[in-house]
TrEMBL record:
It comes from Lactiplantibacillus modestisalitolerans. Residues 18-397 form the Major facilitator superfamily (MFS) profile domain. It is a multi-pass membrane protein. Keywords: Membrane, Transmembrane, Transmembrane helix, Transport. InterPro entries: MFS, MFS_dom, MFS_trans_sf. Pfam families: MFS_1. This is MFS transporter. It is found in: Cell membrane. The lineage of its organism: Bacteria, Bacillati, Bacillota, Bacilli, Lactobacillales.
Length: 402
């Protein structure tokens, strides 16, 4: 007989200060998995490696995150989510310190894998915020928390690039460990207690339900595929930017990090996108995200040799990524609150598998075909996304108004 999750207390409370705290937490923790992107050239130089090898290490980080999503995040449906978040933060601190102390590429690669696995706390926080959000405001709340996630991605590249230009690149990970330690102290006092009192199931039984959920909900499969495409296209660009800047302008990690600040447009747009997802069909907004990302690659291909073209393309690409992520999260979190962590796990697994493949193959194409190969790869991936969204999953609506 299958054991079911039992919810004894479904009271919900979420004020603006708690949403802000969750957004800040997501920003600080998710930054860990993106620190490597602007400093890939520095790592390759110190360890005497080819660019493609460092790209593979970046892929390991993304893969670690993806498998952490698949195996750890679902635990939020059977255990106290506050406790799970706090434990993950402790492990994230240890992983960052290992990267800081790494004497060679093998230890650094192992640390990168652990960083990916242990940095999934935001993906426990996101469904937790969605669960606590009042009905009719879920998209707005998720948009605010996801804007924090984007700030983490944005500032991680900037902080990493700038710090590596004045300090050894390892210092980035020491600072990361300190920041997460401070965050742990704040969350210990301020993070709300989990209102769900009882979850009668085992971890093994819970994991077995994940494939069943994927099979049962076409909208979940559609979101996972879309996340794969959207984030994959984003990482193809960001994983190769530092090499392109060095080739085109003789620039390095500092400039790559500063260009990442252009993603502030996506941060500012996230709450608005969340409100749009509450008012309109998220599927429509996801289509806009695909269009924007494709336009961005058109700009990169045609005008990327000019700094102005590169800047415009970055702004459009980050907007497209954010449109896709917020809208996908909104429809996924609207399926069934009792399985919100598992839904988020499946969606974000697809999302970061796309990111991992984008990082690896982006670096690979850069080595073989340069900037034209990078842009071509991004366009091909997005064409696949259009096919999946408009042809393969044209009518996957299983929840009201989604």
């Amino acid at each position: 007989m299958r054991k079911e999750i039992v919810v004894k207390n479904e009271s919900k409370s979420l004020n603006s200060s708690t949403v802000l705290l969750m957004a800040v937490s997501a920003a600080i923790v998710v930054a860990n998995i993106n620190y490597i992107q602007p400093i890939e050239a520095d790592i390759a130089s110190q360890f005497h490696l080819a660019n493609a090898v460092v790209g593979a290490v970046a892929m390991i980080t993304q893969l670690g995150y993806a498998f952490g999503l698949l195996l750890i995040v679902p635990m939020g449906d059977i255990m106290n989510r506050r406790t799970l978040i706090m434990r993950l933060l402790i492990l994230a601190i240890i992983s960052a310190l290992l990267a800081f102390l790494a004497p060679n590429i093998w230890v650094y690669a192992a640390a990168s894998l652990l960083i990916g696995i242990t940095s999934v706390a935001p993906q426990v926080i996101i469904p937790y915020a969605g669960f606590l959000a009042p009905d009719g405001q879920r998209g707005q709340v998720l948009g605010n928390v996801l804007s924090g996630l984007l700030v983490g991605v944005l500032l991680s590249r900037t902080v990493s690039g700038v710090l590596a230009s004045v300090l050894p690149w390892q210092a980035v990970y020491l600072i990361a460990a300190i920041l997460i330690g401070l965050l742990w102290l704040v969350l210990w006092k301020k993070l709300p207690q989990d209102p769900v009192a009882v979850r009668k199931t085992t971890y093994r039984a819970l994991i077995k339900t994940v494939p069943q959920l994927v099979k049962r909900y076409p909208v979940l499969r559609a979101s996972a595929v879309n996340g794969f495409v959207i984030f994959g296209a984003s990482n193809i660009f960001w994983a190769t930017l530092v090499f392109y800047l060095k080739h085109q302008y003789g620039w390095g990690s500092r400039e790559a990090g500063l260009l990442a600040l252009l993603g502030v447009t996506g941060v500012l747009a996230a709450p608005l996108i969340g409100r749009l997802a509450d008012r309109f069909r998220p599927r429509t907004i996801i289509g806009w995200g695909l269009v924007l990302s494709t336009v961005a690659y058109g700009v990169f291909a045609l005008f990327g040799t000019h700094l102005a073209g590169l800047i415009i393309g970055i702004v459009i690409l980050d907007l497209g990524t954010q449109f896709g992520q917020v809208a996908n999260q909104t429809r996924v979190q609207s399926i069934d609150p009792k399985a919100s962590s598992r839904f988020n796990s499946v969606f974000m697994f697809g999302y970061f598998m796309g990111g991992a493949m984008g990082s690896f193959f982006g670096n690979l194409l850069w080595g073989f075909a340069g900037w034209a190969g990078v842009c071509g790869l991004g366009v091909v991936l997005l064409v696949i996304g259009f096919y999946a969204h408009f042809v393969h999953y044209p009518r996957v609506v299983r929840v009201a108004n989604k």
